[in-house]
Q: What sequence folds into this?
């Protein structure tokens, strides 16, 4: 009887050791980088608010920290009174810096 218990324990230990080494290592999934910028973006003719990696449609005007005002239709009023119109890909950061999109 003792031999049977010892044999069973050895077989069980052997199977668990084999299972631990034979199991495949999970593949590392490459994560896509999200846009972590904060500000507003013109994309396909629509204005979006970007905040901490989330994007939502812009519904009202936003005033940036330097006094630049951005409207939901893409018009930008600079503090000095100049008026600009954003194009697709253009981004205005919360600090008021304007980054032109790729042509």
A:
């Amino acid at each position: 009887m003792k031999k049977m218990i010892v044999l069973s324990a050895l077989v069980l230990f052997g199977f668990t050791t084999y299972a631990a080494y034979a199991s495949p290592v999970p593949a590392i999934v490459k994560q896509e980088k999200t846009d972590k910028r904060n500000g507003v973006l013109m994309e396909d003719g629509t204005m979006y608010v970007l905040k901490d990696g989330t994007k939502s449609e812009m519904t009202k005007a936003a005033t940036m920290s330097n006094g630049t005002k951005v409207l939901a239709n893409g018009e930008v009023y600079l503090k000095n009174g100049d008026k600009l119109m954003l194009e697709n890909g253009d981004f205005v950061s919360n600090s008021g810096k304007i980054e032109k999109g790729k042509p």
Q: What stands out?
A: The helical segments are 2-22.
